[in-house]
Amino acid sequence: QITLKESGPTLVKPTQTLTLTCSFSGFSLSNSGVGVAWIRQPPGKALEWLAHIFWDDDKRYSPSLKSRLSVTKDTSKNQVVLTLTNMDPVDTGTYFCAHVIAARSPFDFWGQGTRVTVSS
Amino acid sequence: SYVLTQPPSVSVAPGETARIICGGILIARKSVHWYQQKPGQAPVLVISYGSDRPSGIPERFSGSNSGDTATLTITRADAGDEADYYCQMWDSTNDDWVFGGGTKLTVL
């Protein structure tokens, strides 16, 4: 079955770069159409899409965060890495990764999420 | 960018039918997905492509899409359905994946 799990620091300082890893099993990012997305959720607020990376290394980013985001994949390790630069307290929240099979497809499997706090 | 609008909260009596709406311009032409999120948990997909129910989701959950409104319907609501519900779609024009603001369902 498909599983995903996020990992990374729980606390980062303002202006630092956040690096999160999504480790997954049950699918391969070398399969046509498959992708991994990142979504975040500030405390008590709504979900916000951040980025996608697809099997062919096609990458998509939230227009509002595009200048700060980067996503890469390591197909051999079944991992996807998200980086978000110049962290600010407003970036505090839970970060999720999720599986997709195409751009218009839903986020059908989610990781448990990892909580990140931005504070000095 | 495309905006999905949801009411902040919906209340329903146990055993009754809950309807959660998601508004967007010509949303009927879009592939809308619905997620249930309980406190402290990751979202769970409950309806895909407007009306498809993933494996394991009870038949009490259904979806529809017409004009400028998508609707998630939960029949015979019970306390276990209390959660936040989010609609979501891919805005291909702006290459943006959009979520609604979420609706908190209370069963009381």
Tags for this model:
heterodimer, A: 120 residues, mainly beta, four-stranded antiparallel sheet, 11 strands, 0% helix, globular, B: 108 residues, six-stranded mixed sheet, three-stranded antiparallel sheet, 9 strands
Task: Write a short abstract of this structure.
Chain A has 120 residues and is an all-beta fold. Chain A has strands at 3-7, 11-12, 18-25, 35-41, 48-54, 59-61, 69-74, 79-84, 93-100, 109-110, 114-118.
Walk me through this protein's architecture:
Chain A has no helices and eleven strands. With 120 residues, chain A is an all-beta fold. In chain A, strands 2, 4, 5, 6, 9, 10 and 11 form a seven-stranded mixed sheet that branches. In chain A, strands 1-3-8-7 form a four-stranded antiparallel sheet, with no helix packed on it. Chain A is globular. The radius of gyration of chain B is 13 Å and the shape is globular. In chain B, strands 1, 3, 4, 7, 8 and 9 form a six-stranded mixed sheet that branches. In chain B, strands 2-6-5 form a three-stranded antiparallel sheet, with no helix packed on it. In chain B, strand 7 and strand 8 (96-99) form a beta hairpin. Chain B is mainly beta and 108 residues long.
